[in-house]
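Dear Dr. H.,

I hope your travels went smoothly. While you were away I took the liberty of generating a structure for the chain from your last submission, since the lab meeting agenda had it listed for discussion. I wanted you to have the full record in hand beforehand rather than looking at slides cold. The sequence, exactly as received, is reproduced here:
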Amino acid sequence: MDFQPDDVQQAIQAAARAVARERIAPGARERDRTGHFPAEEIRELGRLGLLGTTIPEALGGTGAGTVAYALAMMELAAADCSVAVTASVTNMVNETIARWGTEEQKARCCPRLSSGEWLAGAFGLSEPHAGSDPAAMRTRAERRGDRWVLNGEKQWITSGDVAGVIVVWARTDDAGGAGKGISAFLVERGTPGLSAGRHEAKMGQRSSSTVPLVLEDCAVPGGAMLGRPGDGMRIALAALDGGRIGIGAQAVGVMDAALEASVRYARERQAFGRPIAQHQAIAFQLADVAVARDAARLLVLRAAMLKEAGRPFSREAAMAKLFASEAAQRAVATGVQVHGGYGYTEEFVVERLYRDARVQTIYEGTSEIQRLVISRDLLRDP
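The corresponding predicted structure, in token form, is as follows:
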């Protein structure tokens, strides 16, 4: 087993690390304070090919693969989770279109998403009454002549107000059981009948855009359906499997940042006549974070490797997301504790990391849903 990234993967990681440290990290605190969306930073990621990491070069991507994507997300999240989640969702939408779209859909959307010409992509699955249970969605799409007309509401949509294209799920047929009769549609920004609500006042990741969407007689061309009628849940579940690798990688990046800040502070802060890093109570906490961080990294990269190889990876992606996101909660809590009272102030990065990390156990499938995915796979009949 080779744990060393190849030349392409190292190049993508190095590019992400450079832009994260030089362009993204310096403004992260101010963007968090003001809620300013990182538009220029996202466009820079597009110029570097980090919005289409798994997309073939023929469609404007870099074709570097899922491992390179995961490594890049770790670097971006260590600098600013708001930028990382925007990039992660855009990559997920881009890949979903590249996998399920027609040649016309792919040619129109993928190059614009990959380059940053379209500032982001958005994933319109959750609804006010349908989060972990997407089969309960109420949004509907009706065929009227040569168009589909969508009506409904979506909730918690990352980049919903700035995305160039949104993949929107809607019910097209009431026949069949749970999850049946749901289809996916490409809805471009500016389509009449599509509107975004106010930005959510969030605990963390404040400079990423999270909005509700309203679709009111929103008419899209007949060719806007992604995949076939009724393929919606299949498309959504496949996308979420890959998306969980991105969120797991994001959690690893947070742990990297929390550990780096905590080690630095523990070396500098004096108590009882010596640096607090020399006190076992502190040193052992940092050791535990380092172990969890490395374990999470390996779980994420295992899932990424399986996906890249075209092998089944749903359980491994769920494991990676579950472990990494929950380990990140402990890592940031340790970071605040090591900093003492200073860790509770905005002057130190661990305060922002603490808030940013909290949602990682919720979006792209809660920890409870990850345990459901894992247990179903473990307990299914051989």
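Two observations you may find useful: The chain has three domains: 7-119, 123-229, 234-379. The chain has eleven helices and ten strands.

With kind regards,
E. W.
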